[in-house]
Task: inverse folding
């Protein structure tokens, strides 16, 4: 079974004032199928549409046209949300809370029983290297430390599909490696992973398959093992030639 499928997925944002409305297609007829247990990396220049696609898949945005099906249900289905873990592009947390408090809140959202919630929270904090800071207020945290809280949040839920929007954004090299190791562990555990990234080494180390979005069009969809030469030159050529080999 496919973990995820989109058909002709299209999103047009309407922006500007009512007297000068502008509509710009951020996604144009995306057809995508991702198999169970596959690790799919989505590449694309800034503004290509990666975050828009991911937000539609997890049900945060509605498409203008077309459809997205996740684990056999339409994107946004309430029951399916329990099977999904999501790391947003820039995780936002109330700054007056501590990692312990925010993770406890997420654990409640995931409906974890209290004992399991506390155990998983501490394990996740150790894993991302924030155990020592667990009772510090988030307003004292750097960008990378907040990203780590987002990653810890992912580890609470035993999801089937992980949607990660630039998971190593803002992380130092050691923390970025630890994040890649966490993703590889999820992969080993048979999870399906949808990853937005600008990091070519991340794609090389983690992904089974990649897609390239360019101006809202999916111009490439290929298994990593079928890419000849370096991933970087492959990506640059495809984007410069807008998908033509
Ligand atoms: N809320 C919004 N209203 C209007 N336009 C938007 C909105 N969000 C995104 N866009 C536009 O949609 C397009 C795609 O944006 P998106 O954030 O999906 O790109 P991205 O590939 O994730 O970029 P990046 O690599 O910088 O994160 C861009 O042209 C952007 O300006
Ligand atoms: Mg983005």
Result:
């Amino acid at each position: 079974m496919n973990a995820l499928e989109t058909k002709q997925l299209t999103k047009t944002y309407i922006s500007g004032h009512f007297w000068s409305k502008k509509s710009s297609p951020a996604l144009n007829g995306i057809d995508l199928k991702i198999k169970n247990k596959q690790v799919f990396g989505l590449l694309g220049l800034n503004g290509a549409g990666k975050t828009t696609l991911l937000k539609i898949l997890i049900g945060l945005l509605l498409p203008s046209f077309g459809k997205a099906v996740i684990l056999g249900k339409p994107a946004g289905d309430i029951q399916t949300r329990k099977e999904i873990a999501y790391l947003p592009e820039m995780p936002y947390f109330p700054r007056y809370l501590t990692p312990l408090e925010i993770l406890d809140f997420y654990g409640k959202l995931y409906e974890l029983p209290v004992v399991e919630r506390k155990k998983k929270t501490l394990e996740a904090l150790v894993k991302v290297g924030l155990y020592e800071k667990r009772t510090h207020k988030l307003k004292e945290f750097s960008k990378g430390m907040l990203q780590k809280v987002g990653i810890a949040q992912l580890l609470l839920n035993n999801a089937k599909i992980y949607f990660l929007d630039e998971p190593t954004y803002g992380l130092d090299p050691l923390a970025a490696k630890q994040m890649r190791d966490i993703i590889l562990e999820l992969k080993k555990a048979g999870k399906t992973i949808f990853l937005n990234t600008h990091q070519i080494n991340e794609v090389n180390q983690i992904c089974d398959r990649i897609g390239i979005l360019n101006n809202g069009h999916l111009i490439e969809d290929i298994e990593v093992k079928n890419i000849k030469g370096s991933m970087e030159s492959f990506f640059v050529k495809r984007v410069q030639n807008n998908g033509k080999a």
Q: What stands out?
A: The chain has a mean pLDDT of 92.
